[in-house]
What we know:
five-stranded parallel β-sheet; about 10% strand; disordered N terminus; AMPD; metal-binding; EC 3.5.4.6
Amino acid sequence: MSSGIVPPKSGSPLRKRASLQAPTTAEIHGGPRTRQLQPARSLPGPPHCLKHFPVDLRTSMDGKYKEIAEELFCRSLADSEMRSAPYEFPEDSPIEQLEERRQRLERQISQDVKLEPDILLRAKQDFLKIDSAADLQLFKEQGEDLVDHLPKDRDVLLEREFQRVTISGEETCGVPFTDLLDAAKSVVKALFIREKYMGLSFQSFCKTTARFLQNLSEKPLALRMYEEIPETPVAADAPVHPPFADQHPYEKCDPESMPGDLGFGLKMVNGVVHVYTKQDITDKTTELDLPYPDFPTSFIHICKSWAYMTPTSDGISAKSGHAHILAGWRMLPIPVIKSFCYRRLQYLSSKFQMHVLLNEMKELAAQKKVPHRDFYNIRKVDTHIHASSCMNQKHLLRFIKRAMKKHLEEIVHVEKGKEQTLKEVFETMNLTAYDLSVDTLDVHADRNTFHRFDKFNAKYNPIGESVLREIFIKTDNQVSGKYFAHIIKEVMFDLEESKYQNAELRLSIYGRSRDEWDKLAKWAVRHKVHSNNVRWLVQVPRLFDVYKTKKQLANFQEMLENIFLPLFEATIHPASHPELHLFLEHVDGFDSVDDESKPEHHIFNLDSPLPGNWTEEDNPPYSYYLYYTYANMVVLNHLRRKRGFHTFVLRPHCGEAGPIHHLVSGFMLSENISHGLLLRKAPVLQYLYYLAQIGIAMSPLSNNSLFLSYHRNPLPEYLSRGLVVSLSTDDPLQFHFTKEPLMEEYSIATQVWKLSSCDMCELARNSVLMSGFSHRVKKYWLGPNYWKEGPEGNDIRRTNVPDIRVAYRFETLCQELTLITQAVQTEELETIQEEDSLTMSSSLNTR
Ligand SMILES: [Zn+2]
């Protein structure tokens, strides 16, 4: 390793291979390869790109950094001599030693800073900028809400020069070239497939990855299905809080003012809704021109995509689908690819460790330089939280006690045809308000819930009584969800109070009857359950087997119809479902929930019955649920896009437990996932999730009570490798103790894993990026250019993430993508093109 990029030897006999070297900064930014390479100089003296800085501010510090870096480098060399291999990092590196070293460095640097009057002066000036008496006066005048303004000039804060870790040499990836080629081909194919699936459904795909794939694709970018997000200008110095309309969005539910009726007809064909331009759906020719994913072709495609994971895959016929989906899943550990991906992931971890060793102080200094901003006042989104457990146990307890005081005589329940008041309900339980405590409530997960999802589910019943769950945490009950609405509004109020915390709450749609959506929407509109800090996701529990056994459903298609037809109707004729139309404005998309570790008796393959023929009492497998949710969402999104309505995304629980192949479905079909714990066991998938930058909402406290103890949680590992992870709470009712469960989550993670302030801010930034809040809102929260690649998209004044960190992530991703795509480029491109069933089945593309 060397600090500095080594220019390629021009006369190298292995010119072809030379392309495998780490890309230069110029390449990363899409510059021509032939350009004269500027030595990336960070030491000593002012870097050429930062010449406008006062020179004396940097020189002596840079010299110091160099000294420190060299010292670190020497020590790490000395350390590594004690190990058997240079890339092997000790499993349990003695924390005390590392810490002591870090502290010593910190002391050294702070002493150096004392000798740097210019730096001090500057920091002081920065500080004075906001804390001057005049500013304070201004704050008071503008009221609390406007306190969060931005320091004028972002450029003053730009800090892009840092110690880069680069690898030089002919074969930079540590495996034979043929192995690299095989692995790269499979990886590229998998990425192409995800790109197609995301494009078809209007879900987002990582821009950087798309740009690299573009180099391998013959089709110009313009022909792709997904489009640039339309721009609404937000000024660079706009405030951190976006302006919201004064009127409550549910204030005016007026069918008259809603978009008109298109008069389209609907019919579900083979589990997917088809749209017809006439109400009369018998005339096939009136079918609206939309991409309808049809079962066999798309499905073979799913099988095939995983058959791609092997370099030796033969042609796949429709008949052998069964064998292949099995094979596809088994193919993940094909030694060559697996070991390649494993090595890359190890490399990414080690590289990050080096990055932190060399740049920690600089990152910290960059954060300190930003006035006003710190971890407490940056945006955070709780990316995975269920509405029915979004309050903590103390909150629920107080709420129940209050209800017992205020609404004792209210009829809240019907037991065997007889109406019961709240008083009677508690009398039958032999309880008074005084008796109630957190202990009697008994909703918290404990040691008995570990690996017992059934016991955990029972914890949703306060005092073990399902009747209390029905009264207090359901939207559809005798009091039409009044209590639940109130308690959620209290949670919303707390979020608004905290200003910078937001949540994406999951509400349930079960698919048992056609009116569930309308009831849910009416609940939200009637009780005005809305907050600018909250977005909704709709979770569909995978409980077909339960409803089938109870004879509530005849086949699986009925469940799909109940879930999707109302959404299509509300899109075609909003005034026919006025509340639903309003409610959908605030819904991000779909989640799929249940215990993933439940055994699956079926494998989704070509012999699987179509949804209309799924009449057995067994539950369809995970991939079946996910596929049909995706397929219907594709059609719905196209219809909604045509009408100018916003589109939905798929964000399932995935990889919490159970088979690893759930993560394969998640990779292909969903914009991002919750949990992803099992990626730790699947290096190929983990590497793919990294390259595609798929968001993973992780909840280590929840995992700790259910599936994986805290110290084994892979979050810190994922984060170090550059996977897009965020922290979320899952179920504060069961897992958390305080009024700010998300902060609790950050606090524990930070303490257990010794995260730096930069790591925490990076997690928070990730949470906003992967959330469903609107593009416009994100511009205020993260910066007007947040969607741009690399440090250009970062605004440290809003995110408190140093540009250095963002640049490191971006350059590292670009280097991985270069490695992969250039390896493939050296081969004849045709090998990929010829198997171009990569493109969605032709019937999908031509429509
Ligand atoms: Zn969950």
